[in-house]
């Protein structure tokens, strides 16, 4: 036993720790949107800056290559066609050739034109160059190791990478004495300044991108806040909703998806409010109306004696009250079901047959002068069972408020885009102040004879009419009495056309 108890202790401690462990912090949608926006903007701007730098550097490479090629071609043409101004003949000395050519050339600021002459004894080549200042750390004419590397190279052009700076070069070898190369013309370009300009543009673009990101951050924060404001209102409203308070709604602004979300949420709240109101009304009505028969049943059972006649009377009263409670519960359940979308299932109905069937069923409700006044010979989209239920309920209501021998007329007719089914009695009628009151649950008119019902019949009729997107009307009967009319759409029970 001891072992079992010890085995359960760590599990309890773990459960307690899990209960007290704080929930993970959530990142709001506003922050996530802003972070994604900044990430996309940063990648886009960095790509633009990098692409711009790459294009500028490519332009530098193309311009340098073109310049080197042009200088090398000019020297090659001079070798093949040049005349020594002192002799008036072709050049026979490489040194002289290089000196004359260099005297006639004008180099760009980052360009060096150098003549290299081979020397015996393994020494590096001698140089001939234009005495000019070039703004680089170590010009080529001051770098013997670089000159020798270029002179000894078998290539005609290339790139020399040095710690002090890169050199792009092109070389034209010269051999005026046979096939032996005794000199070379070298054009060198220092691209550092041009590359620095491209890098400067890149840094400027990065700086501008940083400022743009800062501005985007502020603007994005404000815009995201305005866009997500209805969403925050939805969240706040949902957090504040309770079963007792479903009246809060979200203001709808604009016509975008967020506004549609707010409208949808408000519609959901409307449905919830109606559902809770129907539930509360159902509970209140049931409690109010069922309390009386329960009290009567309990009272009679408590005082019931041993006398057989008294017992029989008590059982009769109890049975009547239980039957009444059963009817009330069935009516309340029907009214509660009226809030459901499947309460009405319309289909094609022949109004003449429907009216005749209602007339036949109503004649069994009481000894009255029943008259089938008129019938509409057309077809309508209705729920036949529900409409029959409503009409029979109106006929029962007419029986309760008339006496034997009085006339009750039943009929149907078309009136424009709607159909009217009616029950007209010749009783005392309805007091003008009770016109709206009689359709409420558990309410009865003051001028009508009080029947044995619970006051739910006309409420059921109203629910059936509204389920068809119609309404129930109360009119005075010619000669006295009340006429109840179901005004329903003829072929459009769900309100796609004009309403009755």
Q: What attributes characterize this protein structure?
A:
500 residues; alpha+beta; Helix Hairpins; Heat Shock Protein 90; 3 domains; five-stranded antiparallel sheet; five-stranded mixed sheet; disordered N terminus
How would you describe this protein?
It is a single chain. By secondary structure, the chain is of the alpha+beta class. The protein has three domains: 28-240, no CATH class; 257-337, Orthogonal Bundle (Helix Hairpins), CATH 1.10.287.130; 347-489, Heat Shock Protein 90. Helices cover 51% and strands 15% of the residues. The protein has ten helices and twelve strands. The protein has helices at residues 2-20, 29-81, 94-103, 144-152, 192-240, 257-303, 308-337, 351-362, 384-400, 457-467; strands spanning 111-117, 126-129, 157-160, 167-174, 183-189, 347-350, 369-374, 379-382, 407-415, 418-425, 471-476, 482-489. Helix 2 (29-81) packs antiparallel against helix 5 (192-240), helix 6 runs antiparallel to helix 7 (308-337) and helix 9 (384-400) runs antiparallel to helix 10. The radius of gyration is 52 Å and the shape is rod-shaped. The two termini are 79 Å apart. Mean pLDDT is 80; it is low at 1-16, 446-452 and 493-500.
Brief summary:
It contains ten helices and twelve strands. The protein has helices spanning 2-20, 29-81, 94-103, 144-152, 192-240, 257-303, 308-337, 351-362, 384-400, 457-467, and strands at 111-117, 126-129, 157-160, 167-174, 183-189, 347-350, 369-374, 379-382, 407-415, 418-425, 471-476, 482-489.
């Amino acid at each position: 036993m001891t072992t079992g108890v010890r085995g359960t202790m760590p599990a309890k401690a773990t459960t307690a720790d899990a209960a007290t462990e704080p929930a993970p912090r959530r990142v709001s949608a506003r922050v996530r949107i802003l972070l994604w926006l900044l990430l996309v903007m940063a990648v886009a701007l960095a790509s633009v800056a990098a692409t711009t730098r790459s294009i500028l550097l490519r332009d530098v490479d193309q311009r340098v290559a073109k310049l080197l090629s042009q200088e090398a071609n000019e020297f090659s043409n001079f070798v093949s066609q040049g005349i020594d101004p002192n002799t008036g003949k072709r050049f026979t000395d490489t040194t002289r050739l290089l000196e004359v050519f260099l005297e006639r050339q004008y180099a760009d600021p980052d360009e060096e034109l150098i003549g290299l002459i081979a020397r015996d004894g393994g020494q590096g080549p001698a140089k001939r160059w234009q005495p000019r200042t070039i703004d680089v750390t170590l010009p080529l004419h001051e770098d013997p190791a670089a000159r020798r590397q270029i002179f000894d190279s078998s290539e005609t052009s290339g790139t020399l990478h040095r710690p002090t700076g890169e050199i792009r070069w092109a070389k034209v070898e010269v051999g005026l004495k046979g096939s032996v190369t005794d000199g070379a013309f070298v054009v060198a370009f220092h691209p550092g300044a041009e590359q620095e300009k491209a890098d400067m543009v890149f840094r400027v673009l990065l700086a501008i991108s940083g400022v743009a990101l800062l501005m985007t951050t502020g603007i994005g924060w404000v815009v995201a806040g305005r866009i997500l404001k209805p969403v925050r209102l939805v969240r706040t409203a949902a957090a504040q909703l309770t079963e007792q308070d479903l009246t809060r709604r979200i203001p709808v602004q604009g016509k975008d998806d967020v506004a549609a979300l707010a409208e949808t949420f408000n519609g959901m709240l409307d449905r919830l409010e109606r559902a809770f109101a129907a539930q509360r009304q159902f509970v209140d009505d049931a409690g109010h109306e069922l309390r009386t028969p329960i009290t009567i049943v309990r009272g009679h059972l408590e005082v019931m004696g041993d006398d057989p006649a008294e017992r029989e009377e008590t059982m009769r009263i109890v049975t009547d009250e239980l039957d009444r409670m059963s009817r009330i519960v069935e009516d309340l359940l029907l009214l509660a079901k009226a809030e459901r979308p499947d309460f009405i299932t319309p289909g094609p109905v022949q109004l003449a047959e429907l009216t005749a069937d209602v007339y036949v069923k109503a004649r069994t409700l009481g000894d009255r002068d029943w008259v089938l006044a008129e019938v509409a010979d057309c077809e309508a989209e209705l729920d036949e069972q529900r409409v029959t239920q409503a009409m029979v309920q109106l006929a029962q209501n007419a029986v309760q408020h008339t006496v034997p021998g009085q006339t009750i007329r039943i009929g149907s007719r078309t009136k424009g885009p709607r159909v009217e089914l009616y029950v007209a009695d010749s009783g005392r009628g309805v007091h003008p102040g009770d016109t709206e009151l009689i359709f409420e649950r558990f309410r009865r008119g003051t001028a009508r004879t009080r029947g044995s019902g619970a006051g739910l019949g006309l409420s059921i009729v109203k629910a059936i009419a509204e389920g068809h997107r119609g309404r129930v009307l109360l009119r005075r009967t010619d000669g006295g009495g009340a006429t109840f009319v179901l005004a329903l759409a003829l072929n459009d029970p769900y309100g796609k056309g004009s309403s009755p």
